[in-house]
Known about the structure:
317 residues; 44% helix; 4-stranded mixed beta sheet; 9 strands
Amino acid sequence: MKSNFDFLQTEFPVLSTFGCQAEKYCFSDPNSCLMKLGMIGESIVNLMFTYDRIQLPYDNTAVTRIDTLQREGLLTRDLTDILHALRKARNKAVHENYDSESECKILLQMAYSLCEWFMQVYGDYTYQPKEYHLPSEQPEAAFAETAKDKAEEARLRKQDNEKAQQAVPVPHKERSQANLQAANRRPKTEAETRCLIDEQLRQVGWEADTTVLRYSKGCRPAKGRNLAIAEWPTDKFRATRKRATPITRSLSARSLWALSKRKSGTRIFPASSATNARIMRAPSENATRNICSVSGRILRCPLFLLPTAGLTFSSCR
C-alpha cells in the first residue's frame, strides 16, 4: 500500500518505516500509532544531534534535547511545538495506554510536514513538498508487529545513525539559515495551528480542545472551570453595538492568554491576573470566533484566533 512517507525511503528508511506503520495503525490501533509518531520525532532529534555534531545535554532527556536544538537556532518555535506534541502523545500512549483516532489523524499530518522539512534540510535539498492524503482505513488483523519487525527497526536506526556520522559537517550558521528557510516554507494547516495552541493553553491551566469544547456541540461557560470554547458566534455580542470598537473587561482570571499577530506568525503571550484586557473586535459582522470562559464568566473576546484572522490583540493594565 502506498504511504505518504514513502518519499523518505531512500534517505531516511527508519523514518519511512515508522511513518508507514503509524498510518497502518491509525484506525485499527491508535495507541500504537501514537507510539510510532513519537518515534519519528525522537529519531529526527537524535539524527540532528549527530549530523550537526552537537554535544548531548547533561540532562539527556527528550525534553532537553529538543530545547537544546531550539537554543542552537536549529528549530523554529512551531517545529519545537510539533516535536513536543509528538513526544507527549507517545508518553501518554506508553504510560497511560492512551489512544485517540482523531488525535492520530492530526498528528500524522504534523509528523508528515515535519519529515518534509527534515528531508529538505538534511536529505534531498531539491525536494518539494507534496500534498498529504489521509490514509484509508485498513482491516485490523492485517497489522501485527513481530519481533522481526522490531529487529528491522533497530537495524534501520543504526544504518541512519552511521550515515549521519559519516556526513560532511555543515557550518552552524549555514545549517541554521537552511533550517529557518525550510521552516518558513513549510505548509501549515488549520488543524495543526489549533492543536498547538490548545496545547499551549493547557500548559497554563486552560481546558482546551477545539474538537470537543465547541459552541456547536453545546459547550458553555461553567462555574469553577477555565474553558476555552471554540467557534463562539461573536455576532451575538456585536448586536448591541453599532460599530466595531475595542472593549475593555476587568478579568479576575489567574492568567489571560491572547494572541499577537506578528510578522513571524501568531504567538501566545500571558497577561497578569486581574488586568484590563483591550481586545479589538473582528471586522466581520457575522464572524465566528473562539471565546474563553473563566470560572463561568464569559470573556467577550475572540481568543487564540488562527493566523489568517488578521487581528491584533493587546493587553494593558
